[in-house]
Structure of galactinol--sucrose galactosyltransferase:
Amino acid sequence: MTVTPNISINDGNLVVHGKTILKGVPDNIILTPGSGVGLVTGAFIGATASQSKCLHVFPVGVLEDTRFMCLFRFKLWWMTQRMGTCGNDIPLETQFMLVESKDTTEGEREDAPTIYTVFLPLLEGQFRAVLQGNEKNEMEIFLESGDNAVETNQGLYLVYMNAGTNPFEVINEAVKAVEQLLETFHHREKKKLPSIIDWFGWCTWDAFYTDVTAEGVEDGLQSLSEGGVRPRFLIIDDGWQQIGNEAPKDTNCVVQEGAQFANRLTGIKENKKFQTKGLKHVVEEAKRQHSVKYVYVWHALAGYWGGVHPAGPGLEHYDTALAYPVQSPGVMGNQPDIVMDSLAVHGLGLVHPKKVFNFYNELHAYLASCGIDGVKVDVQNIIETLGAGHGGRVSLTRSYVQALEASIARNFPDNGCIACMNHNTDGLYSSKQTAVVRASDDYYPRDPASHTIHISSVCYNSLFLGEFMQPDWDMFHSLHPTAEYHAAARAVGGSPIYVSDKPGNHNFELLKKLVLPDGSVLRAQLPGRPTRDCLFVDPARDGTSLLKIWNVNKCTGVVGVFNCQGAGWCKVIKKTRIHDASPGTLTTSIQATDIDTIAQLAGLGWNGDSVIFCFRSGEVVRLPSGASVPVTLKVLEYEVFHFSPVKEVATNISFAPIGLLDMINSGGAVDQYEVHLSSEEKPEHFDSRSQSLTATVSLKVRGCGRFGVYISQRPLKCSVDGADTVFNYNNVSGLLTMSIPVPQKEMYRWNIEIQV
């Protein structure tokens, strides 16, 4: 249980649980205790100014000698993590910050509990706040409207703080408290997850980029199906729409992977590449011939990269006008972006906010009539740069997000939407419905620096993004030197699992460790996040730390360990780079309590013992309470460990489910299990010191292949759906294995019984 925080300003210091976090807090900083259900444990930071302006910078106090982790936008579209110890380490555009301190309310004690304090900069009215640092080591609140006509001289609820002893609970409680205050967004737990997240998918992007064609879609689906791994959802990415460019012929049009950023949408239907067959026919073929369940298509929040053509045939009624982006100083101070360079010259065709619902609704209604089930909505943060004349960035973004979600609710009943390039709080705090969010910058198969960065970024970003939506850790190539590394991260991360393989370029052996024969995946239950001991170290840059990612399945926990060292975003050259070409081999340790909720998973009476299954090595080890296991990895190596709490099921007989041993997320196969004793007594009441009891362990299991459990003595018999089955038992490790056949029905749950 998170302890009730004690947050106050005393003698010019911001104090949390007796420990000073910020010194020299100025007189114009106001601390307001939270009030109302869910808010009582936190406090708001506000500030006042002598005059009204559209942009303010408020120093809040000096931060020194205190470890923190923050998430900041290193470029307009995306966040990544940064660790530091002083105010000057806080980057521009910081949208989330977690600070570590000790509880000193009862004096300085070595055994004092660690206190985790989260800072969430918020939206207040038409203004957006972020954090940043300065050379005096002051934390600052940067507040702006994005419209010169929208001014203020104060903000009372600019940053929400919450503190306690469990960092994951502190973050969760804070976002839910802000949800109650703002009433403009919903927490992830209240949102309907689209069905695609439990099925394997294929996206056309890295296979074709914008050169995608109807024939290419068919080739990709056929190629994967022939290898026995059927995609059950399909994303037709950028390249299917009608677009045009009014720029003069001699203009140097910016092109990246085929996307011409000055192009604008000229119609809501498919382009010539898809017109021969017709989009509807392409979708029907995918579903009929290749058993695809769900088809999504890509579009930008503004229609296309360059918006909508103001005079496009049939588009006139959207009242589109050319607008020229103006980026926030914080974004400009981080990484420049070639998209913005292009649009600053050519402008963007902005649909009038009062007409944008009509635009989305007509686009989506047409797509739905073609059998499309959802959309990947990209380039979302562009809207924040166009707020001038529309009440500012927050107002315009909210208009667009609300219109988008209303149209999706009307046209795609499965809540079919993936939000992309949308890592700004303008949108996150305005979304009541969108349930899937791309968690980081793209997967770049040809950029050697990107792979370790990708895994660390999606993990840390999920600490914050995972409170709003289910993080999507992006597509990857199954045939690539880093394929298994990426695959393991997706399996542990609870992410949708989909690839962007070119037709004929697949690693089916790897894919079958992720995908069951029916095309479903064994998805972990939560957003994958760094373990507690990784929160304030830097596994991408410090040269000493491995990244540990924890998650849970229905009956077991899982920890993925990754060596992500060697590359990161550089604040000097303002882009990602390799800073260590040959990172060393590193060692860490793992234990059951790395899974933050394992005690809840185990239930009452658990003594702390667990069984650990190491996916790559295949080892099974019983770990006493508090024991740990060392892990040593080279760069771009990984291991996945499944922890299963040990339960005594009969006199001197203990049991722990493991799962499908050849699937990366092995434990995801076990839906539930229960113990039936031979006596009248119930499991929670029986006394192991009494007479010898026999028991039957019943499990519900999904999938097929080698299934394993731990049991401390050889069972009497095993059955699958009532039929006795052959099993193998290892007396040394306690591993019991059996073979489960391929089920005839999708998502089928086998009934496995083990009699002991």
In short: The radius of gyration is 27 Å. The chain has 14 helices and 48 strands.
